[in-house]
# Entry
Amino acid sequence: MLENWLKMIEEKLTEFLPKEGSIPSRLPEAMRYSVLSGGKRIRPLLVMSSAYLVGGDPERVLPFACAVEMIHTYSLIHDDLPAMDNDDFRRGQATSHRVFGEAMAILAGDALLTDAFYLMSDAQSGFKAEAVLRVINLLSKAVGSQGMVGGQAVDIEVSNKAISEDLIRWVHLHKTALFLKISAMIGAILYEADERSISLLDDFGSAFGMAFQIADDILDYHKSETVNLAKVIGLEKAKQEALELLKRSLKAIEPFGSRNKPLKEIVLMIGKQLENG
# Structure
């Protein structure tokens, strides 16, 4: 099921992104370069899985699934900039600013973020305006100053400084986990699921989002000198915490029965990564 959804996501991203030559600039090329360079597509898969979980058609939420991937890619483009993390490679290829220059990379990120909200607010999606507005409200908070951008700001300010475990957890929650949590709720909100279902997905996403980031820290343990949670509390303790969080996320979706299969597969994917890490 997830493999078919991944194909749909790739096809729709290719369709939704501006075509090269559509404006007299390399902007569309820069946008497509970063978005279509691969990746696990965890966030769009969460959107589609939550729609399926509550009995909805996952294909109908594709504009929202693609929108969250565009927002995620914007954040990666900006994170890679010399003024931020100064990375030269991403997903096995040169980063956007290395190929298109810093100015165009910044603009590509700006356009992806803005176009994502245009895509979600387009009335052609067919969902009720109130549901779409709720999604946009929650998502904009999760990726703005109260979420991802705020987390990145703190991350930059404490770079190369002594940092407490509590602050690392705060950065993890705001920079990564909140966005993942909201992604796991979007499909259910659009299909106007009952509040208990949405609350269970909130619980699922909260646990999964933190587990995802801790798993990432474990992967970076030997690859990077940057201080992260695994280095502060120890590799084994971090792994046990992540596995416990994954168990908690699975427990939250037990009441949905067999329709939780796609979400379970995503959780088990991260669990396998932890076992091999």
